[in-house]
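MODEL INPUT / OUTPUT PAIR
PAIR INDEX: 1
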Amino acid sequence: MPDNVLKCSFCGRNRDEVEILIAGQDGHICENCVEHAQEIINQELHFREDTKTVSGFNQSIRKPMEIKTFLDDYVIGQNDAKKVLAVAVYNHYKRLKQKSRELDDVEIEKSNIIMVGETGTGKTLLAKSIAKMLNVPFAIVDATVFTEAGYVGEDVESILTRLLQVCNYDVEAAERGIVYIDELDKVARKSDNPSITRDVSGEGVQQGLLKLLEGTDVLVPPQGGRKHPDQKLIKVNTQNILFICGGAFDGVDKIIARRVQTNTIGFNVDKDEQEDMKKNLLRFVNAQDLKTFGLIPELLGRLPVVTHLDPLDAVTLRAILTEPKNALMKQYRKLFELEGIELDVEPQVLDFMVEKAVEYKLGARGLRSICESILNDAMYELPSAAETHFTLTKEYARRKFDKSKMGLVKAA
């Protein structure tokens, strides 16, 4: 074969055996080798995407049941809310994978979540617990600090400032993150009628959140709002950021009661069922109830998943004291252990604490207040004493609680 016959430098095929032969500086390549090279490039890039680390956030997927099992170690009960959060987080991971590959024309949209639950039932704890295990940037922000643009306070864009700070201002990492917005009920408008004037921290803030939740390019001040007016703004796209909102929505149970008609009168009414419904009306919550409460329909449309947290009963409160990884009794035993003192708590003391927590209706946070009021004197005196063992009895707990400020105030 003559040396001057053109052939592919990769596969060796002659010019007559291929359709296209692309000339390079010192060789040629045919269309078949170009296609194979493209396949190799795609496989390599997808492999890198699967194991990609963005600012230390390794993008690995954990199954919903694994996520729920992790949450069970920190939060007692609330199985419905855990399942909803686990599925949402898992789907968020899968959505990010699908975005990078673009296999077909089906584009998965994000499902932002809103959690409704009484104070002290574990909304923020669920968010913080998820943040411990997540491999994406996670930020917790408080809706009460936001005001409508032009007023003193923070603009809604500062939500993304917190997210950027978490991932060290890596925009690519921030655009794959999750944001938990707490106390969303505090920006509800005061009536169900649209406002004709500016509502500084209510409806105006909800309007500002609309595009943020749906997905748009937002210019974010990297150092926060108006304190640094000359700073260069960073553009962040919120299309792939999952938003989880939470709030107590105090009074929404009355709205639900009117809708589900718990006061039905008649011969065929099951009174036990009626009483059971009244104990946990939040399980019937839907978007219409939240609209009546004061959230605008446009915002609710961008929060398609509505879930609830059950009120804490005595059995759950008792478990909260001892079972989670960071249970209250474990924390206090650790505090005394750091002083070289062994803390022994009688079972009747735990029952007494639970009884008071139910009486004061403060949820899990109430348990900590009760523990502090009982153990404050012991934590003050024992570090200076020579004792190495302290037994907390019911008589001691009752005496200290009754003398405390909390014990002097009658429960509502």
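PAIR INDEX: 2
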Amino acid sequence: MSVYTTEIASDKIPSDNVIHQRLLAAYFQAKPYIKGDLLELGCGEGRGVELLAPLADSFIGIDKIKAVIDKLEKKYPDYKFMSGVFPPFPFEDNSFDTIVTFQVIEHVKDDEGFIKEIHRVLKPGGTALITTPNIIMTLSRNPWHEREYTGDELSELCKKYFDKVEMKGIAGNEKVMEYHERNRASVQQIMRFDIFDLQYKLPAGLLRIPYDILNRMNRNKLKETDDELVKSITANDFKLADQSEQNLDLFCLLTK
């Protein structure tokens, strides 16, 4: 059984390529920061395991989808994987030198507890890397997300527990931004039918199925309209940039 929705982008679905490469880019940008014992919170299908785990002394990945964890355990027998819902985390204080958690915090109801737990299990001098969508660049409400952040909002949340917080972002080049603007125009065409602004008024649970259907239709449409653009974008078309409202994702570095 497939776990893929449009929220869980796949490297196997051609119309998902741009989103997949955007998510993959964060792992490439994280490589210089990886050291010692590494924890990935929300490892998903293991998109970044082959990039990051060999750089660490040890690797643990945790995710709530047990079927995915079972597959990862078979695929990567040298690394440890766990299924579970967090926070809290099932680890001792000061356990990890590096923590990565990409596109996860927006799904966590207790985001402050999440940051507090990251601080607790991170070793003194350790680094945590967080990515999440930049709400300023979001095209519509995502009913799978508890909330989204500006760079300043996420910084303020993290500063409650970390003294050193550096906010950067994942930015796209001209090809990426061309796709983004085409996506924006296409989404606006769909949203013109939402005359009562129901996307912001209805409970998230009622919106997830229609959101997924419309999102899939939209991605397929964008691929059919310009297949070469969609296929050509790779992780190299994204870069780590200074904080800006134009970044697609926030990339936050925390040092304990």
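PAIR 2 NOTE: The mean pLDDT is 94.
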